[in-house]
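Sequence only, no structure available. Ideas?
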Amino acid sequence: MTISPDSDGASSATLSPNDIPAKDAREKERISALWQFALRLYRQPGISATALTLQDEADIDVPELLWLCWLEHNQESPTSLEPLKDVHEWQQQITAHLRELRRLLKPVTEVQPRLLPLRQKIKDAELQAEQETLHRLALIPWKKGGPNESLWAQWQGTLGEKYEKMIETIREKALTL
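Reply:
I predicted one. Tokens follow.
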């Protein structure tokens, strides 16, 4: 996830309500609310670094983590995890490839700085792909009653204590927003 400035120099972004394609005002509001929550959480001290570590070392889907935190914050839970298949497909087919290109270009731009604008365009495209991920996640049907520990356990799998503590830190911070 590359929402705010980090050691990689990724740019920050905002999503205007006018830029959100949605079928109605309620859907548009839900998409915007998730995006704004994700931005607020990601910009909290230490959260972006922790999230990027989870992404790089434990293969955690950061937009999905932010979505789960948002659901928990709003005391909601998905009615089904079936729609996540489409989200995962998007992340694997689009976002992951953009991230890989961005990473491959990093050492290249150190010796060929003329390629920095190309790398920046790829970073911007990666951010747009992650915005699309959050858009799709926001539209997954939900019900009142926050994600419970069994949902979190199912989602985390067996990451190990180090990564579970990192996720817990993000969850705790999310609940204070």
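The CA atoms of residues 8 and 155 lie 27 Å apart.
Hope that gets you unstuck.
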